[in-house]
Design a protein that fits this description.
The chain is mainly beta. It is built from three helices and eleven strands. The protein has a domain of about 110 residues: Beta Barrel (Cathepsin D, subunit A, domain 1). β10 and β11 form a beta hairpin. It starts with a helix and ends in an 18-residue tail after the last strand.
């Protein structure tokens, strides 16, 4: 039902959507409190887990992860923005372009803008990444993130490769 509704909404908005557009299904895992996660891989960091958040404008990573990416020249500064956190607080958030991100085991994206948060916060898969793979469907039955425009399908051995694909 949700998939049908999203396709209808896409159609009404003037976007042409067909079932074949969604060629990269990524399983999601629920972890309670209506949160869903997908496996991921950041080139230069390795395997990770992303909380899927369609309400977040950006991919979000930690300052620790950014520091590692910068030492490997896999991230570039883009801009600062005024971020509004879930609790309503505001903070200046730096945005960097991340060289390479893989969602699930199959969808590689390049040059994704990421907001950087202090400490070791969880990684968030927001719209700056999801728009690169749009159109997409967030389905709850079964929990799946279906993506359309992955630049490259990766092979299943991706988890065993340290530091990049």
């Amino acid at each position: 039902m949700i998939r049908y509704l999203l396709v209808v909404l896409a159609h009404l908005s003037g976007v042409s959507v067909a079932a074949a557009d969604f060629d990269t299904p990524i399983p999601m895992r629920g972890k309670g409190a209506a949160t869903y996660y997908v496996e991921g891989h950041l080139a230069g960091i390795g395997p990770t887990e992303f909380m899927v958040d369609t309400g977040s404008g950006y991919l979000a990573i930690s300052q620790d992860a950014l520091d590692t990416l910068l030492t490997q020249q896999r991230a570039r500064y883009v801009k600062d923005l005024l971020g509004v956190l879930a609790n309503g607080n505001e903070m200046i958030v730096p945005v960097y372009s991340i060289d390479e991100l893989t969602i699930g085991r199959r969808c590689k994206l390049k040059n994704v803008e990421a907001a950087i948060f202090p400490g070791k916060n969880r990684f968030i898969l927001g719209l700056s990444a999801l728009q690169k793979a749009a159109p997409f469907i967030f389905s709850l039955d079964p929990p799946t993130l279906a993506l359309s425009n992955c630049s490259q399908k990766t092979d299943p051995a991706w988890l065993t490769r340290k530091g990049g694909l």
